[in-house]
Amino acid sequence: MKKLLLLIPCILMLAGCQPIKNKRVELNQNAGQILPISALAIDKEDDLYKMTIESIRQDSLDGEVTPEYFTVKADDFSKLFYNADMMFASRLYLSHASVVIISEEIARFDIDKLIDSLIQRPDVRLTLRIAVSESASPDEILQAPSVTDGIPGMALSSLIEKRTKDQTFKDFPMFRILDYRLNGRDIALPVLILSDDGHAAPDSSIIISKDGGIKYA
Amino acid sequence: MAEIKFTTSLEHNIQVLKNIFKDDNTFITRKAKSKNGLSCAVCFFDGMVNNLAINQSIIRPIVSCYESTVTAETLAETIIQINDSIVQTDLNKMLSAMMYGDTVILTEGESRPVVVNTKGFSVRSSSEPDNERVLRGPREGFTEVFMTNLSMIRRRLNDSRLKFSFSRMATHSQTAVCLCYIEGVTDDKLVKEIKKRLNNIDLDGILDANYIAECIRDEQNSPFPTLGTTERPDVVAAKLLEGRVAIITDGSPVVLTAPCILQECIQANDDYYLPVMQASLARIIRSAGVLLSIIIPALYIALLYYHAELLPTRMLLAITAAQKGVPLPPLWEIFMLLIVFEILKEAGARTPGVIGSTMSIVGGLVLGQSAVSARIISAPAVIIVAIAAVTGLAAPKLQNAALYLRFVLLVCSALFGLYGLILGLSSVLLHLCALHSCSVPYLLNLLPRVNAHTEDRAIRISWRQMKNKRFIAGRGKK
Amino acid sequence: MRDTLFPRWQGAFLAVFLLADGLYLETSPEYIVSFFVSTLIFALVTFIYLRLLAYFNIRDFEALCLKIPSVVGKPLLIIVGVFAVFVLILSGLRLSKFWQITAFPAIPQYLSMLVLFFVAWRAGRRGRTAVAMWAYPTAYLCIFIVLLSLLITISNSSAEYAMNLPKYFSFSISPRFLYLIPALLLCTQTENLPTTKHCTIGVIIGGLGLTLISLRAYLVLGLACSKVTYPCFAAAGVFSVGDFLQRGEVIFACAIVLCEAVRSSLMLTLAITCFRSAIPALRKFKR
Q: Global pTM?
C-alpha cells in the first residue's frame, strides 16, 4: 500500500505533460498558456477568409483589462483557427467568447461551414451568438470603441444579449442556427452597423434562407 | 509487586514497609503511643496526604486512647475519626492505596493494617476547558483528579442506575480507569464490548485517556474520530443519557465516550444550551464550513486547471494576472501554502500565549502580504488557503480529518478536475458508510431516512419534543 | 455475516444504475419514446421478478442458483459474473472516452479507466452493504443535480419538437435497459424476502431520468444533436446564471460520473459474489 502511495506524486508529475492531441485547451500550470478570446470577426477578402481576433489580457491584479487584436487569413475555417492557434505560444481559448461577427456574404453562403468548424472545438460555447455586419466590415464593428465597456467584444455580446431579451432580435444562438439549418428552415441573425459617431449599433435582423436568399425583418 | 507478609510484630511490619521503600525519602513512618501502652505506626507518603487529617483524626485519637491493645476493626471503627477507614487484608491493595495518598496504620499485635483515606495532594482547580469553550452554559471542566471527576458526573445524574465500574490498568502505572454508564439506558452489548476491549489493553503505563483511546477505537487508520473526547462533565452526562458509555482515566481531564458518530463531530458543546433556531443554523453553518474547508483548495485547482470555462471572464483574467511572474504553478503553490499554514498552526499551538499571537501575526499577515507583493506566491492562492484554514476551525473535532482530506482531494482534482474532486468526495462518503464505532454505523442519523434513530439531526429539535425522540446509541427506532 | 441491503438502498441503487447512462444517450425521438416504454416495461419486469422471488420463498438470485441443480446453477452464476465484468469494462471504456474528448485530452484512456476501476475496487471490497448505503445519498445528490439541470435549461427548449413526439410512438425496448437485469439480480439481497415497492420506484425514477435527459437534449438542441459528440452533455450547458457557471455541463456530468462509479462498484461486487459462489476455491482469497 505504501509503495502504491508513492505512485501518486509520480502520476501527479505526469499530469499535463503529454502533447495535446485534442483541440481543447487546458489552463495547465502556467496561466500564460492560454489566450482568452472575447470575440471574433470574420470577413472574406479575395477568396481568403480573414479573422480578426479580440483577445483580452490583464497584466497585474489591479491593472486594467485591455483588448488586443490580431488577424489571420486562410482559405477555409479550420485552417483559420489552426493558423490562429499556431501564432502564439498560448492557444486560443474560446470558452469565454460569446459573439462572432461575420460579413453578409459569409452569413449567406458559408455559415454552415463556419458553425461546423466552430463546433469541432470543444472550448466553444453552444450559446455563442453570430451577428452580421452591415455598412462596415466585421472587424471595424468589432474594433469600434464602446461607450459602456473597455472591451468592445464584451460590450457587443451584452448588447446582443439585451436586445434578444427584449425581442428586438430573434433568439438565435449557435445551436439553434445549426438546428434550423439542418431542418432547412430560415434563420434570423442580428445586424450590427456602425453609427455616425463610430460606435457599433444594433439594426434589424437579417433572415437567411437555406439557399442563401435574404430579407430584412 | 513484591510479595509481602505482615506478622503481629509492629517492628517487623514497619521494617517490611521500610525495606520496600528503602530508597524513597518521601516515605514516612510515625510511631504513636498512648499512655496506656497502645503502640501504632502511621505510614504515609509525604506530599500525598492531608497533614491536618493525620494529626487530628489519626494521631490524636491514638495518643489519647485508653486501651492498651486493639484489634484492627476497633482501630478502624472506633478510634480513627475519618470517614473512609477499612481493614485491608490484601497487602498489595494496601500498598497501592498508600502510594495514592492513603495512610496505613499498623498496630502492635495485629497483622492486618488499617487503610485510611487521607488523600491530600495538591490539585488544579476546575476551570473551563480552553478548547471547549461555550457561549452559554456550564463552565466547569474535568481536572486530573479521578474522584473529583466522578463526583462531577454523579452530581449531574442523580440516578441509582448510574454505574461506575472501576479497574486498574497498565503494569507499572496501575492507573485507575472507570467505565461509566446508565444501566437500562445503555445497551448491555455495548458495555460488554467496551469491557472486553479495555481488558485487552496491554500497556506498561497509562498517562492520558488517549493511551486507552488508541487501544480500543475502531478503524485505527481513519482520520475521523471513532471515540468521543471531552473535558466537560455536562457533555459526559448528556452522552450517558444518550446511552453511551464514558471512560474516565485517572490523571487525565479527558473523558472518552463511545460510540462516537459523525453527527457528534459537527455538534458544538453548547448546541443544546442555545435556542433551537440559533443552534440549528449554527449546525448547518458548521457542516458547510467543514465541507468548504475540505474542498475549496481542490475546487480552485480543478477550475483553474481543467474547467476555466466555469469562471467568469474577468475573474479568470484576474487570476491569470495574479499568476504572472509567480514561480510555482498553482497546484504546488496551494500545496506549499497549506503545509506552511499547518507549520504555522503547529508552531503557534506550542508557543506561549503572547509570543504565539505575535508569531501568527508576523507569520500570517506580514509574511503573506510581503510574499504576495514580492510575487513569490499569488494572492488568490493565499485567499484560498486562508479560507480553507479559517473554515476548518468551524468543527474542531474534524480538524484532523479535514487536514488529510484537503490534501487527498487536492491531488484528486489536480489529476481529474471536478470529476476527480467528486469521485474523491464520494470515496470519502464510502469510507464513512463503511465506518463503525462500537458496531454503530458512523453515519447514523445523517443519511436521509436510513437508520434514523432520532429527529435531532441537522436541525435540532426543541427540548419540549426531545423526550421520546432523543438518540439512544445502539437502539433501533422508537 | 450476510450482507443486507435495505429496500430503499436497493431502489436508490437501481435508479443510480440507470442514470449512469445519462451522458451517452441517443437523442432521436424514436429513442426517447423507447426509453419511456422500456422504463415502464422494466418497472413491470422488476415488480414481477421480485414478486416471484417472494412467492417461491427465495431471497435473491444467489439463493436461487443454490437451489437449482449445480449443473445449471454454477454456469448461470459464472455467466452473470462474466456479464458483470463486461458491463464494468463497458463503463470504463465509455467514461474514459468521454473524458478524453471533453475534459482531459492529455490523460491517456487507460489511466482514466484505471481511476474508475480503482474507485470501483475500493468500494467493491467493502461489500454490498457499504456500496448500496453509499448509493443512497449519491442517488439523492444525482437526482437533485439532474433535476436542477433539467429545470434551468427548460427555457431554451422548443415546444414544437415536444408536440411532434407522440408521432414517433412505438413499442421498442432500448438495449441500454437490458443491463438492468444483472443489477436486478444483485440488488435484491436482503435478510428477509424482497419487497417490490422501492425497487420498482427506483427503476421508474432512473428510467424517467434517462428519458428526461434525452428529451431535454432533443428539445434544446433539436437536429443539432447529430453534430455534437455528446448531445445530452452539451445540452446541459445551454444556460447561464449571470456570468458565473456559463458552461455548467461539467457539473451535470459530475453527477452522472458519480452514478457511473456506483454502477461500476456494484458490477464489481456482483462479479466477485458470483465467482466466489460458483468457484469455491476463490473463497479463500480476501476481498
A: 0.87
